[in-house]
Design a protein that fits this description.
It contains 3 helices and 2 strands; from the N terminus they run αααββ. By secondary structure, it is mainly alpha-helical. The longest helix is centred in the N-terminal third of the chain and has 18 residues. The protein starts with a helix and ends with a strand.
Length: 55
């Protein structure tokens, strides 16, 4: 699993927990973090297990 996929799964789990516990501000901030991660998805997908692939 690449870093991007793992990060998105963790953020989605955090958002769901925030929703379950009625923490709308935290859910919003996690959503912002997901959008930021999406903007860097190509850099994150180039990494696996924290290492950059050689071209």
């Amino acid at each position: 699993m690449d870093d991007f996929t793992h990060l998105m799964q963790l953020l989605e789990a955090a958002r769901q927990l925030a929703d379950l516990n009625d923490l709308p501000v935290l859910a919003y901030l996690v959503g912002v973090a997901k959008e930021e991660a999406r903007s860097h998805r190509f850099a994150l997908r180039d990494k696996k297990s924290g290492r950059i692939r050689k071209s």
